[in-house]
Each structure stands twice: as C-alpha cells, then as structure tokens.
C-alpha cells in the first residue's frame, strides 16, 4: 500500500467521525492530486487549465456529498479514482468530446506519481465482468466503462437500444449481487 493511501484514509475516517479539520485537510490534499490528474488528461486533449479546475471542484463536491457512501473497510484511493473518472467522462459527454479521443488507459490512478496502489481495488471489475453473460458484459463495457451512449452501443453491437438498456440493468443487478456475496463473511 502506498503511504499516501494511509494518510488520506486516516483523514477520511476522521472526517466521517465529525472532524471538520480532517475533512478540510482531506479535500485540500485531494485537490492537488485531482488537479494533476485532470490537467494531465485534459492537456493531452488540448483542453484548458480552467476546465481542469472546474473538474477538480466537481469531484471534490461529489466526494464531500457522497462521503457517507465510502466503506472504511476498503481502500480510499480507488473510491476517489472512480469519482474522478466518472466526472471526467461526464465532462467529455457534456462537451461532446468523444471518449475515443481520451487515453483512458491513463485514467487508472488519481495521480500516478502519488498513488501507485490505486489498482489494488478490493473488487476486481474485470473478474466480476467475466461472471456475466457476453451480452450483459459488452453492454456494460460499452456504456458504463467506455462512455458510449445507449444509441452508440446499440449501433455497434447490432442490438436494439431497449436490449442494451435491459442488459445493462440486469448485468448491474447481477454484479451488485456478486459484490454482496463477496462482502458477506
């Protein structure tokens, strides 16, 4: 485990216990990591620094508002990474930038320099996805991971939009059940 994980997690746990100073420190530290993450990705796309700052603020707000959803038994940085990545994908959708223009291979850690342990997620998404039938797995991959719209996924797969939606819904339900089974001792 990377040392920064321990430090950030300790701040989050204290924050969840009501320590306002720890919460401020957590958000301040995360803002630096998030800023590096977004600037790096957006610079490769020819986007501006102000857009990175907007994304930092959106991610920090999502972390603040959703902090009650963090499971303290898990690593913090994968949770933060997921929020940061989804904020980036939302930004790309809003600004009509194709996800194919973004090297999402680089989006696997909040900041590579600061957190090499982000891939140590307790739940291995790739392994979980292999548990699903191919149609569900492909629908989730295209829409939820690759960032395609339902219409784009339907066109690519040759399925109807309704079929894509149903496969995503059923697949996510199956993944949720699998995760619940893994967490039950």
From TrEMBL:
GO terms for molecular function: DNA binding; sigma factor activity. InterPro entries: RNA_pol_sigma-70-like (IPR039425), RNA_pol_sigma-70_dom (IPR014284), RNA_pol_sigma70_r2 (IPR007627), RNA_pol_sigma70_r4_t2 (IPR013249), RNA_pol_sigma_r2 (IPR013325), RNA_pol_sigma_r3/r4-like (IPR013324), WH-like_DNA-bd_sf (IPR036388). Coiled coil: none annotated. Pfam families: Sigma70_r2 (PF04542), Sigma70_r4_2 (PF08281). Keywords: DNA-binding, Sigma factor, Transcription, Transcription regulation. Residues 124-175 form the RNA polymerase sigma factor 70 region 4 type domain. The keyword Transcription regulation applies. Residues 32-96 form the RNA polymerase sigma-70 region domain. GO terms for biological process: DNA-templated transcription initiation. Belongs to the sigma-70 factor family. ECF subfamily. This is ECF RNA polymerase sigma factor SigM. It comes from Rhodoplanes serenus.
